[in-house]
Amino acid sequence: MISSGSDVWVFSERMDVTLELLGKGRELADGLGASLCALVLGAALDHEADTFASHGADKVFLVENQALQNTLPEPFAEAIGKLASQYRPEVLLIGSTRRGKDIAARVASRLETGVITDCVALGLDEEKRMLVGDRPSYGGILVSTEICTTRPQIATVPPRVFEPAALRQGQRGEIIRTEIDLAPPKTRVVQVTSKEVRGVGLEDASVIVSAGRGVAKKEDLRILQELASVLGGEVGCSSPLAEDLKWLPLERLVGLTGRKVKPKLYVACGISGQVQHITGMRGSRTVVAINTDPDAPIFQQSDYCVRGDLYEIVPLLTEAFRKIRQK
Amino acid sequence: MVRTVVCAKQVYDVEGLKVDPKTRSLITERVERKISDFDKNALEEALRIREKHGGSVTVVTLGPPTASDAAKEALNMGADDAYVIRGADMEQLDSRATSDMLAAAIGRIGEFDLVICGDASIDMYSGQVGPRLAERLGIPQVSHAKKVTVNGGVVTVERDLEEADETVEAPMPVLLTVTKETNEPRIPTITMIIKASKKTVKTLDAGELGAPFATSVKVLKALAPTTKRRREVIEGKPAEIAESLARQLLREGVVDG
Lengths: 327, 257
Fold this sequence. Notes:
The complex is a heterodimer.
Chain A: E1 8-11, H1 15-32, E2 36-42, H2 46-53, E3 59-64, H3 73-87, E4 91-95, H4 98-111, E5 115-116, E6 121-125, E7 130-137, E8 142-148, E9 153-157, E10 174-178, E11 188-194, E12 207-211, H5 221-230, E13 234-237, H6 239-244, E14 265-269, H7 275-281, E15 286-291, E16 304-307, H8 310-326
Parallel strand pairs in A: 1-2, 1-4, 2-3, 3-10, 4-9, 5-9, 12-13, 12-14, 14-15, 15-16
Antiparallel strand pairs in A: 6-7, 7-8
Helix pairs in contact in A: 3-4, 5-8
Chain B: E1 2-12, E2 18-19, E3 26-27, E4 33-35, H1 37-53, E5 55-62, H2 67-77, E6 81-86, H3 95-109, E7 114-118, H4 129-137, E8 141-151, E9 154-160, E10 164-171, E11 174-178, H5 190-196, E12 202-205, E13 217-223, E14 232-233, H6 238-252
Parallel strand pairs in B: 1-5, 1-7, 5-6, 6-12, 7-11, 8-11
Antiparallel strand pairs in B: 1-4, 2-3, 8-9, 9-10
């Protein structure tokens, strides 16, 4: 079976990410008038193949091979490269995990094409049949809009960017078992240790109260901690407090060199709002800024601007939430 | 004896960059250029391997004419040799052209046991050049290396993946990519700089390496993202401000009532 050479393919070593790529892939395939195909590589993956076939994939290529046991980039790239050389997809979406990006790079090198990495948005120029990807660059200070001028057009997409594909009642894609000769990997995985899951990090916090240079002493962070506790949130900070003064550990740092957060509420206390900090908190739903300097750039990036002293406002805010809750 | 090639990119110091609020473009004037952070970790790791096992460290870089400063910096840190690939439009290269050019240069420089790159450059952060280069050179890669141990012809690498830590053994030649957790790069002392002053940066001509090096990815535009914020000023006495802000945030549902 030879495809038309215009299909949209998706691959991730993670099932949840593959479903998200199928969600976006369906839209792209419809725009191109093409088929949507999922790649399943490994062993004993019939269940995954079945799931993708019922979640929007018109075709599922299932490759089982000894070399595909440990998600090593070389055999995965060889498998995807060989399939793509045979069936010539127009678009290939790969999950932007660390493993996925390694695989994407090697596939692209084999096929002499490029990769638009870490796309946070993907559009289509239907006339030119061109994928258009938006991705953060310069640590998130800029968003670059990029295209790939050679085929296949490869893009990597981080987890949780797109909605997962829904179950399509009564529609089932075709599962195609394919045999591919693969070189045995030269590297050997000796040990795998799952990481322990720690408490709520900043990335998962629903409320973040963040401290900047407006906080005069380390002990005063307590005022912010109290507000965070009342709101069930976490305390973060801007770079001077973590990198220069070291009042808080690096894992509390929000910004270019720290965490990129997306809480429902972000309260910036005494933070001036340099672009390096904004980069880390841009994804917040609602932003409150408290700063004595009426010209602080943070006010341009805030929903609620309080021109005042955090030492006055923050304790009163904590008190106000306590009171309202008691009623 | 381990012959190591380190690939390094010169980048703007991202922490010094500003954005023009009118054009939403990057202001790069007076911003310093430096060796990209993780590439410095790559060089440091290569130097440590040489100190322990003997061998050599060769650095390859490419880019605009200022890239020779990066090569010089690498010599100051202790590299035996540093090459700059020169050519036209070197700032427009994507990962494809860059990795193909590096592969050609490494082929020209000679035999190697190890290639070390940074996980990604701090400006574009694509993380593509290392694995692409490995594919071109026909060797395996181990990315995101936290700890590297060389034993005979085998490299043992502890690597950091999102969900797990993995230990991998790879026979040389192999390409590794490293990150800031791998080591703390040395800062050249005056003595080191004086010693390095006798060495010269070598150049390679992109045209002679087998041009043209084709690109695939094109940047259509690169602008600071706009976030629509309401910028509502809350005025009043401090207690009134706190009260009305608290009520508003509860109404919006961004905090639990």
